Amino acid sequence: MAKKKVTGKKPKKPKPLPRCKAFLICEKVIDDKISKSRSLIGLFTEFSVRGFPVQFSPFWLFIQLSDGIVGQYSIDIEIQDLKNNLVIFRRRGIPVEFACRPETVDAIIWVPPLRIISPGSVYAVVIFADDQPIADSVITVRVLGDDNAS
């Protein structure tokens, strides 16, 4: 039996993932193209509802990434119902481009209205870069008048 020839090539390492410097959930983002400044309006981590089913208003995710390798990353967003172990929203393939290594890149992502049928109480918002999780945050849903809600 012949031995396989070893070529000495090392397997290619995956490119390093960008680092998430900021991840905020808000009602509105004002993006001034002239001054290149952004205003985040109505930051939140909780929805208060009267009961279920309920439809959440659209909202925005502001993500600031740094330390990416020159080139493009594919960003995915998931909103997960942690109580029922379900993904209730997914957006895939948001391109983020790094022109140089020390650069920071902002991604502003719109989330459409979400209909929630039953209480889940806690929802994770997870950010992925090239299919690897890089950041997460939690949205709590509190039922008004329910003193036992977390």
What is the topology?
Blueprint (H helix, E strand, L loop, with lengths): L18 E14 L4 E7 L2 E4 L4 E3 L2 E8 L4 E11 L4 E13 L5 E8 L2 E3 L5 E8 L2 E12 L7
Parallel strand pairs: 3-11
Antiparallel strand pairs: 1-2, 1-5, 4-9, 5-8, 6-7, 6-10, 10-11
| Number of helices in the DSSP assignment | 0
Structural class: mainly beta
Task: Report low-confidence residues grouped into runs of 5 or more.
Answer: none
Portion in strands? over 45%
Strand order of the largest sheet: 3-11-10-6-7
Using the CA coordinates, give the radius of gyration. Answer: 20 Å
Q: Could you explain how this protein is built, in words?
A:
With 150 residues, the protein is mainly β. The chain is 0% helix and 61% strand. The chain contains no helices and 11 strands. It has strands spanning 19-32, 37-43, 46-49, 54-56, 59-66, 71-81, 86-98, 104-111, 114-116, 122-129, 132-143. Strands 3-11-10-6-7 form a 5-stranded mixed β-sheet, with no helix packed on it. A 4-stranded antiparallel β-sheet has the order 2-1-5-8, with no helix packed on it. The radius of gyration is 20 Å and the shape is flat. The protein starts with 18 loop residues before the first strand and ends in a 7-residue tail after the last strand. The mean pLDDT is 89.
